[in-house]
Every structure is written in structure tokens, then in C-alpha cells.
Specification:
46% helix; alpha+beta; Translation Initiation Factor IF3; 149 residues
Length: 149
């Protein structure tokens, strides 16, 4: 205790074994560095959000390409994407047209995502795309480039 007071430091018990293990350190600085580490660890954690893209079975080609572009952008950011296709009126009688649109979007983004789930409800079809990890995607790109060379 006396050595700690002479140096202007704190005596901190590290382990409560027999005999107890203690260190001389500036406790305020130590606490600050610990909270800094925790903040950095929290910042590096990525929570994959579920984002939604709404579609219609009678969507025009240009509009579909815009939706595909949006979907790809969301997947590149690491988000899961829920493709929600809604039917109106008598469109419900032709679910194959809806599945065709969803398949086209899933096919266009197959390099970035995999289909994780799908559901077919009364007036809508939902398809959830989960992003493939970026490392795996880059590895497959480099493998494809080396095979083409």
C-alpha cells in the first residue's frame, strides 16, 4: 500500500488466491481502457437486419431490374432480404407468375445470397435471402477467375 501511495498508483487485487495477487496501476486509466475495448468490440459486432423488398407479379422488366439492384445492395451490406410478393384481386389464381418473378430475383443475386426460407400465404409469397459471407464470395470469385485464365 505504501509503495502504491509513493508512486501515485492504486493497489489492485488481480486474483483472490492464497496469497492474493496484486498489481500497482492507475485504476482510472485501467477502467477507461476496458470501456474503450468494450466499445470497440461492440462496434465490430454486426447485427444482420431483415430488410423487405416488395414486388408484384406483373412487374415490368425495368422495375424488376431496379428491385434486383436494391436487393443486391442490401445483401452486400450484410442484411437478410425478405422478398414479399403480393397478389391483388384475381392474380391469386396464377401463383406461378409470382414464383417466376421471385426465382428471377433469387437467380440474379445467387452469387451474394442463398434462399433461407420461403412461405406461401393466402395473398402473398415470401422468400428470405440470407447473405453468403463475403470471404466465401471472394474465394469463389478468385477460383472462377483462375479457372478462366
Amino acid at each position: 500500500m505504501q509503495a502504491a501511495q509513493e508512486r501515485g498508483l492504486d493497489l489492485v487485487q488481480v486474483a483472490s488466491t492464497t496469497p492474493p495477487v496484486c498489481r500497482l496501476l492507475d485504476y482510472g486509466k485501467y477502467k477507461y481502457e476496458q470501456t474503450k475495448k468494450q466499445r470497440k468490440a461492440k462496434k465490430s459486432q454486426r447485427v444482420g437486419l431483415l430488410r423487405e423488398v416488395r414486388l408484384r407479379p406483373k412487374i415490368e422488366e425495368h422495375d424488376l431490374q431496379a428491385k434486383i439492384k436494391t436487393t443486391r445492395k442490401l445483401l452486400e451490406q450484410g442484411n437478410k432480404v425478405k422478398l414479399l410478393l403480393r397478389f391483388r384481386g384475381r392474380e391469386v389464381v396464377y401463383p406461378e407468375s409470382g414464383w417466376k418473378v421471385l426465382r428471377e430475383v433469387a437467380e440474379a443475386s445467387k452469387d451474394l445470397a442463398v434462399v433461407s426460407s420461403s412461405s406461401n400465404e393466402q395473398r402473398s409469397i415470401a422468400l428470405v435471402l440470407a447473405p453468403v459471407s463475403l470471404k466465401k464470395a471472394k474465394e469463389t470469385d478468385t477460383d472462377a477467375e483462375t479457372q478462366n485464365s
